[in-house]
Amino acid sequence: MQFDILTIFPQFFESSLQVSLLGKAITQKKLNVALHNFRDFATDKHKTVDDVPYGGGPGMVLKPEPLVNTIESISGKKKSKCILLTPRGTLFNQKMARQMAKLDQLILICGRYEGVDERVCELVVDEEISIGDYVLNGGEVAALVLLETVARLIPGVLGNEASLSHESFNEGLLEYPQYTRPPELRGLKVPKVLLSGNHKEIEAWRGSQAIKMTKKRRPDLLKKLQNEKKPAKEPT
Known about the structure:
33% of the residues lie in helices and 17% in strands.
């Protein structure tokens, strides 16, 4: 899968793309990540990428030409999607990540300053996405979140892909508690069922704990899951 990231700070990504599973996947060519400094596509001799907003107001706005020109130079994959990272976008979730992992190309625009000229959205952006109800200095952190979330769903990126089926949000619930050695630490013991060797009981315990954890920390997820499982009402 091809990831293209548009940013005026490509050095922001350098270390993250060289370490851990992400770096390994790139080295093994499970995915490819290209960084594009859209300043290179500015149309004036000073390589200007921002300007004052029409109508007045604080800060600067990213100009449309550098972004549109960059995207038009790299797009072309059959199943491609261009995403603008912005606080006003749709809240990102695991379901969206799974859909993105089926694409051939994902283009991520890292916003800066007060935002992006709206014509960029009208001309080349397919979707606007936010990673949370807060504001960052720019879209680079958000782009890394999308990159890692989607990349780990690509076959071959994770060492043990079976672990995906037990993660939070996979079945609409948070993940159950995990334990490892030692069996006791400062008076806190590992639940006996996990030491029993009875896999049927262990799975039942994990399922009940996932529901309990979700009810305590994210009751909205549990409510959503319950609503989805309700049978549709027959027309009267």
